[in-house]
Design brief:
single chain; Rossmann fold; five-stranded parallel beta sheet; 7 helices; 54% helix; 10% strand
């Protein structure tokens, strides 16, 4: 399984998979795709401030149908316990998304260099 960062969810929804790295595209084809609930909340926040036209629900429904995307169902407490250890980041969404992947010892598909510096299972 592989978690998708928020910007990856947006790219895939917009049909811009070609803008992802080669390793990212390969990982999408080979693994079950998961999204952290934090990434879904971030999508909705982007929608609320006008930076993303579709709602989070529309993005998730489309990617679920097209790519089999699932929302991670780990208990929130488990994710928060891991997030408390992610002291390298202040952004609450990045912190929770990385913690969610770490809690499952899973890969995280992201272009974010800071995540790559601190999470060895990050892929781009």
């Amino acid at each position: 399984m592989i978690y998708l960062d928020t910007h990856v969810l947006v790219r895939l929804y917009l049909g811009e998979a070609d803008k992802l790295g080669a390793a990212a595209r390969s990982a999408i084809e080979k693994h079950d795709l998961l999204a952290s609930p934090a990434a879904i909340l971030e999508l909705e926040m982007l929608h609320a401030i006008g930076r993303l036209k579709p709602t989070a629900s529309r993005v998730v429904n489309a990617l679920s149908q097209d790519l089999g995307l699932r929302i991670c169902d780990l208990p929130f407490r488990t994710v928060v316990d891991h997030a408390l250890k992610e002291r390298w980041v202040r952004d609450p969404f990045d912190r929770l998304i990385a913690a969610n992947a770490r809690a499952n010892d899973a890969m995280l598909l992201t272009k974010d260099e800071r995540i790559h510096q601190h999470y060895p299972r990050a892929v781009w």
